[in-house]
Amino acid sequence: MAFIHNGSMIPLPGYPLSESRILNPRHVSPLIDGFGRLHNNLRISVTDRCNIRCFYCMPATDVVFMNRSLLLTFEEIERFVRIVAPLGVNKLRLTGGEPLVRHELPVLVRMLAAVPGIEDIGITTNGILLADQAQALWDAGLRRINVSLDALNAEKFEEITRRPGYEKVLEGIKAAQAVGFDPVKVNAVSVRGMTESEIVPFGHFARETGVEIRFIEYMPLDADNAWERDKVLFASEIIETLSRELMPLVAVGERNPHAPATDFVFADGVGRIGFIPSVSQPFCAQCNRFRITADGKIRNCLFSLEETDIRGLLRGGAPDSEIVAAVRASVSAKWAGHHINHPDFVQPDRPMYSIGG
């Protein structure tokens, strides 16, 4: 990726000039933080509501959701994306809560797909409503999909999610594959003392279905503040288990330095497994992401302790330039890393479902 400065093409860190997408020279420079990291990847939470209650994300009962009037409208989300796209933002991911509970979500996908400069739109969903919406999402322009599924056992699924729905998730995955999503990625949070029994079944699942499994280390974003480092089941342990019980895993070529996952395949080439070692091997140094919550707050890091109010600017009639300045200030202030492994770590007040996954 590159931008134009004084008539010259300037490559940005980590983006080969041969793969560059040139920014409009009439606009100011792209979003680069104080550590030289380019931010081209925006995660958009569309709701804090969810139809399950995963323990690492939400309380089991008495959840207080935002008043719907506080959520950004589709038109406000589209305007924000149109403002940041000329700054180099070309990748979007819709999250929640559970994004598919937001009424008529394919309409938003279609709106965002039409924004000049947007090249890639993905979604992270728990999959329970996916079977009914997969075709409409594909038709609207969605091309990447991640399904959160932490167990391949209905009883274990309900222990984690505190709700039924395991079979619906499997139906959703099949429906997504049928309409053309390839690969469908399955995100599995790994928790010591709970999900060790799921490691090998997920390896078989990857080999038998063609989905890509991505094991994610358990992070401190739960509503009950019950996270402990001792509960993190590390990526290295999962790699060792799969290599011992199935067959060796082999790293997949040169990885995208900005992707959170490190990808492997089994030695015979069948079955792709990714690992997101957020705790044991943080990828903060190459992070290219920032996010906007469902109620319109910019967060420059999942673990940020500060937010920038964009909804107030959008609804207060602020010009685009003022919104750009607010985004720039937020990205510029981004930390070097998330501090999980530091003694000064402070868990954000918002749990995952309120921030946006």
Summarize the structure.
Mean pLDDT is 88; it is low at 1-27.
Task: Describe this protein's structure.
This protein is an alpha/beta fold. The protein folds into 2 domains: 1-30, no CATH class; 31-355, Aldolase class I (TIM Barrel). It is built from 10 helices and 14 strands. The strands form 2 sheets. The protein has a 12-stranded mixed sheet with strand order 9-10-11-8-7-6-5-4-3-12-13-14. A hairpin with an 8-residue loop joins strand 13 (297-299) and strand 14. Helix 1 (74-84) packs parallel to helix 2, helix 2 (105-113) runs parallel beside helix 3 (130-140) and helix 3 packs parallel to helix 5.
Helix proportion:
25-40%
CATH homology-level superfamily of the largest domain: Aldolase class I
Ends apart, CA distance between termini:
26 Å
What is the CATH domain class of the largest domain?
Alpha Beta
Keywords:
TIM Barrel, 18% strand, 14 strands, two-stranded antiparallel sheet, 12-stranded mixed β-sheet, disordered N terminus, alpha/beta
List the helices and strands and how they pair.
Layout (H helix, E strand, L loop, with lengths): L1 E4 L2 E4 L29 E5 L28 H11 L6 E5 L9 H9 L6 E6 L4 H11 L3 E5 L5 H8 L4 H14 L4 E7 L8 H11 L2 E6 L17 H11 L3 E3 L10 E5 L5 E5 L12 E4 L4 E3 L8 E2 L1 H5 L4 H13 L19 H4 L2
Parallel strand pairs: 3-4, 3-12, 4-5, 5-6, 6-7, 7-8, 8-11
Antiparallel strand pairs: 1-2, 9-10, 10-11, 12-13, 13-14
Helix pairs in contact: 1-2, 2-3, 3-5
